[in-house]
Amino acid sequence: KTDEEFEVLSHFPLESAKRAVDAPEAMVGLRPLAGVTNTPMVRHDGSILDHAGYDEESAFLFLPGYGVNVPPVPTVPNDGEVAQAVALLDEMTAGFPWDSKEDRANYYGLLLTPLLRMLAPPSYKAFFIGAHQPGSGKTLLADVIAILATGVPAAAMKYPETDEEFSKTLLAVLAEGDGVVLIDNVERPLE
Q: Kind of pairing, strands 155-158 and 181-184?
């Protein structure tokens, strides 16, 4: 490699995708692909998809992020495992100024929603994370959700001044194919 060359990780080569689209009849023997996930998920039957690679039962391809080692997830966790999981969630959100235990519980529900997408399929409605002051960590909380759902931080956009400008900006962000869009610092009604 030269100093100007670098590797780019890709889920599926563009040239291969073009061939598949141009000649689907030549793609014999391909397994159906329902989607790609970067995180473990709950299957339709309640079992856990937690082994990297193609999953015959769900037709999902599980590709954990680079360097991510996902230990097996117990189907029926014991009290100690549940306590460890809650402690991990609490550590991830330590320092965020929750107004109440209910606010924190609602965030945890939002955090886990994408992991249940086979049981409760997307598309999901909008979710809102509010705080009394800027700089409290709302964007970080949103990014944690996006990373768990898609493997990358949320595509962020500032809420534009006019509805027309908002429509154009949102269309441009959605055209990029991002799975999660963060509309940051909304200061007027969102329609």
A: parallel
For the stretch 76-103, pLDDT in tens is: 889 999 999 889 888 988 888 888 999 9
pTM: 0.69
Whether the CA torsion 105, 107, 110, 116 is positive or negative: it is negative
Given a contact cutoff of 8 angstroms between Cβ atoms, the answer to whether 150 and 38 are in contact is yes
Six-digit token pair at 2?
Answer: 């030269």
- Closest listed residue to residue 62, CA positions, set 23, 117, 14: 117
Q: What is the pLDDT of residues 11-27, one digit of tens each?
A: 677 888 888 888 878 87
Asked if the peptide bond before residue 10 counts as cis, ω within 30 degrees of 0, the response is: no
H/E stretch holding 1: none
